[in-house]
């Protein structure tokens, strides 16, 4: 195996690892809804999962830049399979009978109030089952849109304007993702009103919009570091391959 092939494989492995772990974490912590600006008395609510989604879509754009649409979809499909596996295991653990001593030592909270830790465990993780359904649908649609729009913009601009294809693909794909995931997870499978879904989805989207803009320098820094790691000629070769595979 030559040095370039090894570096290319290592790069794809690292980027895929970052993509997968952040996507999986976002799904797990997405059951928590928090208020973004409680001190201002505003109703700006977000799912905790959106905090690390910017890492996912920046990584998506980097993978697309060097490995094309096929590279993005390959890791996206793998991620969906792993998320399903993770939540399948989590669901099975909610069915396990709790140990009596575990319930006993955790029967009150820090203030002495009655507390059922097994009920809390099931409430948190089974809530995630609705989210996983919505997320898989939204994730699949969003990633295909992101990869397709990114590739189309790269082709249209002749490989220039990294910020345009990265930001443009993210803004469109996340518009779909933000609304679909919450609608399926909390309206179809949950107990939210449609108004609550639209309110949180709207805030989620504008957070992702701002993050996409603010993370543009990070995208250029990643390009700089990867180009130095691969070398100028090898970088050009890899990007040409990614562009050539745009129709995959």
From TrEMBL:
InterPro entries from the UniProt entry: YhhQ (IPR003744)
A GO term from the CC aspect: plasma membrane
Subcellular location: Cell membrane
Residue ranges crossing the lipid bilayer per the database entry: 12-34, 46-63, 75-94, 129-153, 174-194, 206-226
Principal place of residence: membrane
Membrane topology label: Multi-pass membrane protein
Alphabetized UniProt keyword annotations: Cell membrane, Membrane, Transmembrane, Transmembrane helix, Transport
GO MF assignments: transmembrane transporter activity
Its job: Involved in the import of queuosine (Q) precursors, required for Q precursor salvage.
HAMAP family xref list: Q_prec_transport
Family: Belongs to the vitamin uptake transporter (VUT/ECF) (TC 2.A.88) family. Q precursor transporter subfamily.
Protein name in the entry: Probable queuosine precursor transporter
Organism: Hymenobacter properus
């Amino acid at each position: 195996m030559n040095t370039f092939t090894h570096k290319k494989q290592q790069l794809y492995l690292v980027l895929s690892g970052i993509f997968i772990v952040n996507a999986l974490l976002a799904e797990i912590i997405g059951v928590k809804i928090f208020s973004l600006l409680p001190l201002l008395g505003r109703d700006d609510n977000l799912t905790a999962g959106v905090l690390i989604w910017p890492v996912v879509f920046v990584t998506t754009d980097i993978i697309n830049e060097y490995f094309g649409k096929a590279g993005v979809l390959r890791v996206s499909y793998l991620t969906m399979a792993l998320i399903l596996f993770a939540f399948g295991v989590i669901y099975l653990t909610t069915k396990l009978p709790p140990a009596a001593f575990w319930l006993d030592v955790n029967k009150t909270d820090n203030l002495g109030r009655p507390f059922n830790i097994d009920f809390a465990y099931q409430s948190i993780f089974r809530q995630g089952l609705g989210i996983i359904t919505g997320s898989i649908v939204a994730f699949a649609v969003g990633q295909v849109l992101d990869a397709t729009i990114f590739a189309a913009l790269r082709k249209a601009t002749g490989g220039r304007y990294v910020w345009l294809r990265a930001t443009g693909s993210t803004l469109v794909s996340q518009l779909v993702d933000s609304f679909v995931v919450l609608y399926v997870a909390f309206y179809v499978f949950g107990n939210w009103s449609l108004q609550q879904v639209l309110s949180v989805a709207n805030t989620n989207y504008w957070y992702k919009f701002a993050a996409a803009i603010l993370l543009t320098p990070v995208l250029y820094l990643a390009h700089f570091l990867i180009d130095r790691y691969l070398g100028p000629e090898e970088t050009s070769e890899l990007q040409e391959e990614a562009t050539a595979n745009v129709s995959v």
